[in-house]
Design a protein that fits this description.
Distance between the termini: 72 Å
Oligomer: single chain
Order of helices and strands: HHHHHHH
Largest sheet: none
Shape: flat
């Protein structure tokens, strides 16, 4: 044992140190240790103008010359999407309507109220509706959370 190490471990340490020294001597001075590939701008210099388009880049990898490449399938003109229609439940933002929809009773438990909150959020959460309807969804979720929180406070008494 040499200085608390086995002979095998000391040989491994010595070989590693020699490898590190050899790598430092052989490494070019302009290269950063750990980077085995060129930088992005070096890679992109050989890219042709046609391959800047996604469909042409694929054609070039297949080996076609640009003039003999098959025409990409024509994209049919898209018609403008119709304006979305607000679901009926999002039009009901009055607290009475939301309370009736939640159907909170004195028999509800904390777990039951949590399930009602999750079910309501699944249908009404602002992140799950079209951006045009988020204001109504936010009002509905705020009111529902307020009603459920009040019911939970009553349970705690």
């Amino acid at each position: 044992m040499l200085f608390g190490q086995s002979v095998f471990q000391s040989v491994l340490d010595r070989l590693k140190a020699e490898d590190d020294e050899a790598a430092e001597q052989d490494a070019p001075t302009a290269r950063v240790s750990g980077l085995n590939t060129g930088l992005a701008f070096d890679v992109m210099e050989g890219v042709s103008a046609q391959s800047n388009r996604a469909d042409q880049a694929y054609v070039e990898t297949m080996g076609f010359a640009p003039e003999t490449a098959p025409e990409s399938s024509p994209v049919p003109p898209t018609s403008p999407e119709p304006d979305p229609v607000m679901p009926d439940h999002l039009t009901r933002v009055a607290p009475e309507d939301i309370a009736a929809e939640l159907d909170i009773s004195m028999r509800d438990t904390a777990q039951g109220l949590s399930e009602k909150r999750r079910a309501f959020a699944k249908k009404n959460h602002p992140d799950r509706v079209h951006p045009l309807f988020r204001e109504n969804a936010t009002k509905r979720m705020t009111t529902a959370n307020l009603l459920i929180d009040q019911a939970l406070r009553r349970l705690g008494r």
